Amino acid sequence: MNDAAHAPRLSLDFPALMTRVAPLLLGKPNQHLSNGDRLRFGNNGSVEVDTVAGWFSDYEGNRSGGVIDLIRLRNDCDVAGALAWLEQQGLKDPSTPAERQRDVPQPRRPVNAGFYDYCDENGVVLFRVERRGKDAVPPFLQHGPDGQGGFHAARGCMQGVRRVAYRLPEILAADPDTIVFVCEGEKDADRLAALGLVATTNPGGAGKFTNDLAAPLRGRRVVALQDNDDAGEKHVAAVLAALDGVAASSVGLLLPGLPAKGDVSDWLAGGGSSDELVRLAEAALHQPIDTFEIADLGAWARFEPEPKAFRMAGVVPEGEVTLFTGPGGTNKSTFGLQLCAASAAGKPMLGIAVEPGAALYVTAEDDDRENHWRLKKIASAIGTSLNDLAGKLSVVSLRGHLNNELAIFDQEGKLRPAPAFALLRSTIQATGAKLIVLDNVGHLYIGNENDRGQVTGFINLLYQLCREQGVTIILIGHPNKAGDSYSGSTAWLNAVRSQIVLQRPDDGMDPDARVLTLGKANYARPDQQLTFRWHDFALILDKDLPDDRRAELAAIVGANTENAAFLACLAERAGQGEGRQVGPNSGPNYAPSQFEGMPQAKGLKRNRLKAAMDRLFAIGAIETHTFRNSSKGRDVTIIRATPNTPEHLSRTVPEHLPQTPPNSSPEHLPPHTPLLRKGTGAAFQGSAPVPQATTDQPTSGTRVTATGMILAPGETGDEPIPGFDDWGGRA
């Protein structure tokens, strides 16, 4: 028999030999096997024979191999004895000892229980994995071909070796409709195979399932079994990613009742069965595929769409997160609390309709004393009382509390809801609030405000409340130093559908005036503005002031306008250099005469500029300065602004200062610029002080009335106010 004829004949007959050998050796001499059969022998089917690839597995003895290995195992002989036995049974032609040694086929499964063989499509072993035990380092070791027909674990032994899925021949031989189970290890795959299931795994451990290993699973139904630990979860994710677009269907399955770090073998040892495993796998494969929620356009066609609803008409859209920003001291907190009170009371907000409903105001900046004081004033301003608001408006102060952040971010930047978020959700549920004001973002967000991902995640967390609880949220924030209406990443603005901005008017003439602008308005015109004012710790419209108060306010605004014009003219002339300066006395260099007609004078006549000069002298905003003019040989007196004189003079307490009932003693009043003309301040009944006649008596003919009004010479305080009727008519 020549070598060319003999070697391939054995290779071709190898599976056929198993059909004859297995019944003889396993106590079933009359059992007839056909090529392609796969049967079990022994107690509980502990020995499996596969005639496709020509191997056997003894799961009780934890031994496996090919035909020669089976003969050696059952007859307790060596390779030569196994070949001789085949000749005795008439299953092999006689051969010389040299031929017997040459013709021994490469074993497909080792008798040594510590190895797992990875075979190609024809059952030829490509490499082996040694199980060395948990205490070994490493616990598993790959063995590549040694070039002499065996395998070794030398350095570089796996270089160039093709990686294949474990039990590849069984996968290829299985019915295409049979579920293929992907396990995390060879032990689990063998355990499932012993139960008659098709199972595989990958070399290298968890997370090493590659696209090449997925190729034999094309068009098949695959279930990836998850070990009950983090590594198992990540491994299943990697398997499913490799199978995407390859398998007909694939799904991960975490078996019920698995202990920590448990696997499918533990589940079977705990009473699970192959039938139950298949049932769970079928259920998982037939679960509806997870997708984004898709709108039903057919249902939409059956009714008319509804316009966007608003909590505050045209300003605060229903069910959205509105970003509410503005400089410090512009009364954003007052606005938020007043809007909540208006919602709870069913009252309009600054003349604009507000959807009635329970409201929740959460502040991390003000304590209960401050909130009590402010809400008492607000209730009076909108025509309600604290008793009427009880049960419908909930006020929460987090000032002084720790851990107020609603979310945290892990090392990977992934958002995790914090305990405070759960408290906020339960508070919303307990109060039934539909309008939520959060004051402010600086206390509730601890991520990087310039990180788009973190900012978007935080806003989406708030939208989760909007969706789940059916609420509208106003998130109060601050602008940045560059002048933008928000601080940090543009994601703050991009993630919301509405932004409102609260500011003072640009002219600065009336520090109590406020302008609300729609900074971003997906549901309204963004150029809309609402003008109103801060008055006695609440926000009101100008038209809601009594007539006499409006007249006083108009006078104050007019005086401030005149003062600002005078200071602007003075600054312009001073900037033109020596010789362009102006003086306080009648003559060619008289300031009011020189200023009349200048662009900075805004059309004011000489008498109004003189009144402004007298007021500014009275409050110390300007002063005279005398110096020796050597070229003229005489002293010259000029007017100059006092150091640190602001362009526009503020007269009211900004909201960030303590706004408590003012003490009647002057020493307890906050420092303030005295009133320039009429009334008790632009914020009437507020805490603005009046000048003290004993220390701040005006000069140059001005006088101070008993109520603290500063009047220019010739003024009585009852003069008509130009343009007052037009001004007073504006809302």
CATH class of the largest domain: Alpha Beta
Number of helices, where a helix is a run of at least 4 consecutive DSSP H or I residues: 22
Let me know the largest β-sheet. Answer: 9 strands, mixed
Portion of residues within helices: 25-40%
Oligomer: single chain
Strands of the widest sheet, in order across it, are: 17-16-20-21-15-22-23-24-25
CATH topology of the largest domain: Rossmann fold
Distance between the first and last residues' Cα: 114 Å
Which structural category fits the helices and strands? alpha/beta
- How many domains comprise the coordinates? 4
Written overview of the protein:
- It is a single chain.
- The chain has 22 helices and 29 strands.
- Helix content is 31%, strand content 18%.
- The chain folds into four domains: 3-113; 168-285, Dna Topoisomerase Vi A Subunit, Chain: A, domain 2 (3-Layer(aba) Sandwich), CATH 3.40.1360; 310-542, Rossmann fold (3-Layer(aba) Sandwich); 548-711, no CATH class.
- The chain has 731 residues and is of the alpha/beta class.
- The strands form eight sheets. A nine-stranded mixed beta sheet has the order 17-16-20-21-15-22-23-24-25. Strands 1-2-3-4 form a four-stranded antiparallel beta sheet. Strands 5-6-7-8 form a four-stranded antiparallel beta sheet, with no helix packed on it.
Q: How would the blueprint of this fold be written?
A:
Blueprint: H1 3-25, E1 38-41, E2 47-50, E3 55-58, E4 63-66, H2 67-75, H3 79-88, H4 97-103, E5 115-119, E6 125-131, E7 140-145, E8 151-152, H5 168-173, E9 180-182, H6 186-194, E10 198-200, H7 211-214, E11 221-225, H8 230-243, E12 249-253, H9 264-269, H10 274-285, H11 297-300, E13 310-312, E14 316-317, E15 321-325, H12 332-345, E16 359-363, H13 368-382, H14 386-389, E17 393-397, E18 407-409, E19 415-417, H15 419-431, E20 435-439, H16 441-444, H17 452-469, E21 472-476, H18 491-495, E22 498-503, E23 513-521, E24 529-535, E25 538-540, H19 547-575, H20 591-595, H21 606-618, E26 622-629, E27 634-641, E28 703-704, E29 710-711, H22 724-728
Parallel strand pairs: 9-10, 9-11, 11-12, 15-21, 15-22, 16-17, 16-20, 20-21
Antiparallel strand pairs: 1-2, 2-3, 3-4, 5-6, 6-7, 7-8, 13-14, 18-19, 22-23, 23-24, 24-25, 26-27, 28-29
